[in-house]
What does this fold into?
Amino acid sequence: MKRAFVHGFLGDTSVWDGIAQPHDILVPLPSTGTSWHDSVAIVANQVVGCDVVIGYSLGARIALGLVATTLLPRVVLISVNPGLATEEERAQRRDADAVWAQRFRTDPLGRVLDAWEQQPLFATQARVDPERLAERRSRRMMLDADAQARSLEVMGLGVMPDYRFAINPERCALVVGADDAKFRAIAKGLPAPLSIIEDSGHDPLLEQPEQLAMVLASIA
It folds into this structure.
């Protein structure tokens, strides 16, 4: 089976270390897309011929865009939001993402990362081994801050279509951390098989990579 992996916001392909296999394709999020659909098209060109695309968070949303708009056979969506239902919600999210984008462009990167990582969604990461957290932080400090700002503007939830219509049990599988209350509730409301990663919050790649690898091996 030919698998491709797409990381999330503030990530890079190394987040799949210990999860992906050597023959798998690791796809970086596009930094040159000018719109949501353009970004999906860039990734689509990199996964031609793949049997399944596995995405985390923003990468899962891009993967869902692939299954909604191309002939990609199947996706595994880790910690996915399938899209906001109303234009009012999307406008509110665009406003919020614009604030973060401005911070990425003007504030020291370390300060912005501190604020981002202190959001309640990531509270469970306090349980992660400090060395592993330090390694993740070191990689993030090497990111291009302007590219992260553009990612929020071009690939944020505020510009993403609502893809709930594309989720079905034949083409989609869901994975979520047991302690990620918000995204577990989202996943339970979607019509696709769901795997739960115990002792994990929003980011099983960081919090429970071995357990995640075993789950993915069984479903993809």
About this structure: Residues 87-154 form one domain.
